[in-house]
Amino acid sequence: MTPTVIITIIILYFGILIAISQYVSRKDSSNDTFFSANKNSKWYLVAFGMIGTALSGVTFISVPGEVGSPNGEQFKYFQFVLGNAVGFLLTASILLPLYYRYNLVSIYTYIEKRLGFYSYKSAALIFLLSRTIGSAFRLYLVVIVLQRYVFDYYGIPFFATVLISLLLIYAYTYKGGLKTIIITDTLQTFFLVASVIFTIIFICNSLDLGPIEAFETIKNSNYSKIFFFEDFISNRYHFLKQFIGGIFVTLAMVGLDQDLMQKNLSCENIKEAQKNMYSFTAVFVLINLLFLGVGALLYIYANQYGIEVPLDHLTGKPRTDLLFPEIAFNYLTLVPAVIFLLGLTAATFATTDSALTALTTSFCIDFLNMDKKKNDPTNVWKRKIVHFSFSILMFLVIILFNAINDASVVSMIFKIASYTYGPLLGLFAFAIIFKHKTVKDKYVPYICIAAPFITLWISNNSQKFLNGYVFDNELILVNGFITVILLLLISKKIKLVGNQE
């Protein structure tokens, strides 16, 4: 597929999204519409659209690529996904009822009610930092693909590709916000799901495999091992590490994240929101299994046709993230290449548009106090300035990441999340579990800074002090636990009033 065809498809794709945005927000572009979609979203639209938000381009490219990585990861990611599923169910049963009870717009206002002003600002700031970094990394992955296969052909520099991508996202989200995203993410999730299904079909046809033969081929290949129970101490892929990490990473990155929760809170009531989470969980597990199957088929296809994993332009090392686009654009026919492009674009921009809206919402509510100043006539233009500012901030983070990154993006995202989301996990855990306690609020920001550094020290020295133990995604639990311990050291008993939690 030529770069001209690719860029034409991208222009048409964003034209559709911008048209949807204009239609949805034609009558109402108020802050209530932007922040909460007026709390009348249909649960099935939210559930379907959340698939695209939760998966992102990381799942689309990096997860299949890691199946055949030199580290022998195979299907080990599915252990993490099973933990994710438990985390989603805990979010639906514990956190969502709490958020609906308090009728929250920003979920971090709960921390203000329980622990105080500085704790609240710390929680909100942790989210802003974590989501900006995480979303920038996710967008970076796809921009690298677009740069390599499209914009390099036209001599357009990397920074311009990033800027164009973010401006296009801004163009269809700045007016309608969450109300627009509920609709556009539904469309984008459709492209994502269709893409992974059709990719499997096209690759199987290229390999002359029927459905049963494809299943047996994957099963008997060197890529299909799911569960790793060997050597709990030193094996970072051990089932318990991945499963436990999956639970707590999900609780933090979904249940305590304004981005994913904002969609849930746009449902009419708690029952609708829980229907969304339960149905979303089932589809999430299935889709991830399909992506791992795509990864196995890609490596089988590459081995059969002598295709090498593409090299990173900066490091000169094999980059598994690029195997999927390499095969889709250069070895498959036009139709599967187009379907891949639509799926990749949908997966990534569904995540980024949602993140920009959530970041804007959190800053406007948690730092500009727009929920307490609803009659201020300047609120709408302030919100638009904040929305644009986060677009620029994400641009700068991507440029920085491009200059220093030489690791798999999927690994990098969850590694960073273990440090940045850990204090958030600890704050909410303390607030929910120790209902009879509060804290010396002004010291909480220092704890939120100290806990990740203590966690980093433990991780770097675990092999020395813990008999060779190697941490992986479960490190977020350690970080959260350290935060809780430190909060207990500055805690004091309180007398509960009413339904305070």
Can you give a write-up of this model?
The structure is a single chain. By secondary structure, the chain is mainly α. It is 72% helix and 1% strand. The protein is built from 19 helices and two strands. A two-stranded antiparallel sheet has the order 1-2. Helix 3 packs across helix 14 and helix 7 packs antiparallel against helix 15. The radius of gyration is 22 Å and the shape is globular.
Short description:
The protein has 501 residues and is mainly alpha-helical. The chain has helices at residues 3-24, 31-36, 43-66, 77-101, 109-114, 117-151, 158-173, 178-206, 211-219, 239-255, 258-264, 270-305, 323-330, 334-366, 379-404, 409-420, 422-433, 444-465, 475-489; strands spanning 437-439, 491-493.
Q: Give the terminus-to-terminus CA distance.
A: 57 Å
Provide the helix percentage.
Answer: over 70%
Strand residue percentage: under 5%
The low-pLDDT segments are none
What structural class is derived from the secondary structure elements?
mainly alpha
**Biggest sheet, in brief?**
2 strands, antiparallel
- Net shape: globular
In total, how many beta strands? 2
Q: Count up the helices.
A: 19
Mean pLDDT: 85
Radius of gyration: 22 Å
With strands numbered from the N-terminus, the spatial order across the biggest sheet is 1-2
